[in-house]
Design brief:
single chain; 438 residues; mainly alpha; 2 domains; two-stranded antiparallel ribbon; 18 helices; 68% helix
Length: 438
């Protein structure tokens, strides 16, 4: 209570706040301390004590300012989630080791791929430095300052996607690649993250009570999926759709509307997949790869044979470069299992699950709804991409052009993923801190 006018009380409160490094919570702490002190003083005065005696009694009951201040400093400490950052670092260091091992293995075979692997390591190192700078830059801001720009980010991401798809050529059957000097990136990689950031702000206090609002909300969320259909990139469409569905559910819509919308989207997605003979052949090959062992079904049979021959401890340097295409990207998990064994493969999968659970834990324990939506959406993005890649490498899902985040080679993909981690840890950092707009 600010009605207390006493030098000793002011000194006590200021000493407590002096030990709390997060200055954004000082005003809240002062109000809370003064409120407790006034309650104690009122009780003491009611018991017949003088005002001075009541104040001394209140300060004594509150406890030593250094103990109280240290305790509050721990509670309100604004620090990133070092556990999540540590897991991310393990993924990246493991990726560098894997690429290096690929290079050594190729060199021992007299294969020119050695130079390519060195190039991958150097480029990934360059992108890693940029990614670290991005994470450090994000840590300096408060994620809640982005909320007022939600509509602008949404419109901007749509415009960037349309421009990217319009001017970029097809690369491996997909459009969206843009070159900026020595760097190149695919707008389909960054668009989902920007859309999640914008939709989190739009959906924070969204009214799902009327049919009109439901249709508008679904159009805002699922409408950008057309971008991934045009590209075309079905994996990106699946990942984005699951992330948006997560946002919509957490924002408070009734579950039956989500089920109806997903059913409709599911039928449209199935029709899109079965529209071409090539897509139908891919599905048939996934279900029965033995029927076409030398064409579409070859990759499924090859993945199965490599996993089967891996053993607990792997085949070491016996891997030949022609055994598997995209061993450094889409099928890097199969390479890891074959080379280092199922023990390492299982440890990696367990770490992936722990990584996803950790992000989910941050989302659950974030009281700010905007932050909760951001973390939940990004958690869905990571979880879907990780799990689809793992299932694909275990022959439990059709072959997609989808990489393993942080592990697979990919320069700008690494920066984009680290940007997402930076946002998540930023939410964690400010989870117990009031937002001050001044």
């Amino acid at each position: 209570m600010q009605s207390i006018d006493n030098k000793m009380v002011d000194e006590y409160v200021n000493n407590v706040c002096g030990l709390v490094k997060n200055k954004k919570v000082h005003e809240n702490i002062k109000e809370e301390l003064l409120s407790h002190i006034e309650e104690i003083i009122e009780e003491a005065v009611a018991d017949g004590k003088s005002e001075e005696e009541a104040i001394n009694c209140a300060l004594l009951q509150m406890g030593s300012f250094d103990i109280v201040g240290s305790s509050l400093n721990k509670v309100h400490k604004a620090a990133p989630d070092w556990i999540l950052l540590g897991m991310t670092s393990v993924f990246i260091l493991f990726s560098i080791f894997i690429l290096g091992f690929m290079g050594v293995n190729a060199s021992s075979s007299g294969n020119y791929v050695d130079e390519i692997s060195k190039k991958y390591i150097i480029r990934n190192g360059f992108y890693l430095i940029i990614g670290i700078a991005v994470v450090m830059g994000i840590s300096k801001i408060d994620y809640r300052s982005l909320k007022k720009y939600s509509k602008h980010i949404y419109i901007g991401s749509i415009i960037i996607s349309i421009i990217g798809l319009s001017i970029s050529p097809f690369v491996n059957g997909v459009r969206g690649w843009i070159s900026l000097g020595v760097m190149s990136f695919n707008v389909l990689h960054i668009t989902p993250i920007l859309l999640i950031l914008s939709l989190a702000g739009i959906y924070e206090n969204y009214d799902w009570s009327s049919l009109k609002n439901i249709l508008i909300g679904f159009a805002l969320g699922f409408g950008p999926g057309l971008i991934f259909l045009v590209a075309p990139s079905l994996p990106s469409l699946v990942i984005y759709t699951i992330a948006v569905t997560t946002l919509i559910i957490i924002s408070g819509i009734k579950l039956r509307y989500v089920i109806i919308s997903l059913g409709t989207l599911g039928m449209a997605f199935t029709a899109a997949i079965l529209e071409t003979a090539y897509s139908r052949a891919r599905i048939t090959a996934f279900l029965r790869p033995i029927d076409d062992p030398y064409d579409v079904g070859w990759i499924y049979n090859q993945i199965y044979m490599l996993r089967k021959s891996a053993g607990l401890f792997g085949q070491g340097g016996n891997y030949a470069q022609d055994m598997l295409p995209s061993a450094n990207s889409d099928y890097i998990l199969t390479y890891i299992i074959y080379t280092f064994g199922w023990i390492i493969g299982i440890i990696l999968i367990a770490l992936v699950l722990a990584f996803i659970i950790r992000i989910g834990f941050i989302g659950v324990n974030t009281r700010d709804k905007y932050g909760k939506l951001i973390v939940s959406g990004l958690c869905a993005l990571f979880a879907t991409q990780f799990l689809l890649n793992i299932l694909m490498n275990l022959n439990l899902a059709p072959a997609f052009a989808i990489s393993l985040p942080f592990i697979s080679y990919g320069g700008t993909a690494l920066i984009i993923n680290m940007f997402s981690i930076g946002i998540i840890t930023n939410v964690y950092k400010w989870r117990n801190t009031p937002y001050i707009t001044a």
